[in-house]
Amino acid sequence: MKKLVWITMCLAALMGARDDARAVSQAGGIALTFPVGARFNALGEAGTAEATDYTAMWWNPGGFAYAADKGNDYGMHLMYTKLVPGLADDVYLLYLGYGMRIEGWGMLGFNLTFLDQGEQDGRDARGQFTERFDSKQYSLGVTYGVKFSEQLGIGFGLKYFRDELAPNSATADGVAGIGDSWAFDMGAHWRPLDKLKTGLALTNMGPKITFVDEAQADPMPFTLRTGLAYTAWESPVQSVVVLVDWLESLVKDDETRVFGYGLEWGYSGYLFIRGGYKSDPEGDIQAATGGVGVDLSNFTDQNILFDYGNIPQAKGLERVHRISLTFEF
């Protein structure tokens, strides 16, 4: 399928997004590759072992089994971020995750990931403008997590993914640039020691994203994640958590490997200062991350957690801001 608009889209709107997503793989399904939760973005994008809330549906379904451990049976997480500030301000990512505890069964969750790739200009075979249109990607998922003990949690997820690049009226051959697929996630969360958490997850296992035929299909961003989280210090006033993550793309011919390191200092359970480092040679990212978190339940009657993360992209691109809100009830 020959579409000149693809070139325009990649250069105008997705250049920075692809550089950032390159940390995960060279596959399709960019929307599935951006780490969820401002907290873990601030921690060097290391959350495979520590994520035990509603972001765990993205990081590690095994950790999702512990989402109700604070005593709240229901909750949700919302994250918003612009992806290429300064280049295309209408390109943004939105994540929404909702979970509930089912007595005697475990945790059941639903999630939406939406990537708005902004407005694009359609061109005909002569390069003449034809129309303006929006491009987007999104996935809808369901996740189940269950604790076999206080030390071991297992989880599974299933998602539907759709990529709407261009309508048929905007392509040179009159064929819509729309593809879809599905994927399966699985993960385990294990606590071998009192202060040590470990995580292992396989995410985005599924058939290729097919637009017209298999010859032009893109592989899903099949990924292996492992991680460690260690509580180095904990008292009624302060806490220190150290995190390490390792990511490897399992897509054929993609040798991407990414390391993330994080350190979180907590004060009285309501203020958190975070820093980290992301090492992604393939994506041309070797830089520090940072952010803060505030538990607003100390100041309101609602269980609300605010998180902010500041993360790097490839050289030459502006750093991006992640903002998250977690609600529990």
Write a concise synopsis of the structure shown.
This protein is mostly beta strands and 329 residues long.
| Parts with pLDDT < 50 across at least 5 consecutive residues | 1-25
User: How many distinct folded domains?
Assistant: 1
Strand order of the largest sheet: 1-2-3-4-5-6-7-8-9-10-11-12-13-14
Please report the total strand number as a whole number.
14
Task: Give me the CATH superfamily.
Answer: monomeric porin ompg
**Biggest beta sheet attributes:** 14 strands, antiparallel, barrel
Q: Could you name the CATH topology?
A: Porin
Specify the CATH architecture: Beta Barrel
Tell the overall outline.
globular
Give keywords:
about 325 residues; mainly beta; Porin; 14-stranded antiparallel β-barrel
Structure description:
- This protein has one domain (about 5-329): Porin.
- About 10% of the residues lie in helices and about 55% in strands.
- The chain has 5 helices and 14 strands.
Fold topology:
Blueprint: H1 4-12, H2 15-21, H3 38-42, H4 56-59, H5 61-64, E1 74-84, E2 88-102, E3 106-123, E4 129-147, E5 152-166, E6 177-193, E7 196-205, E8 223-234, E9 238-249, E10 257-267, E11 271-280, E12 285-295, E13 303-311, E14 320-328
Antiparallel strand pairs: 1-2, 1-14, 2-3, 3-4, 4-5, 5-6, 6-7, 7-8, 8-9, 9-10, 10-11, 11-12, 12-13, 13-14
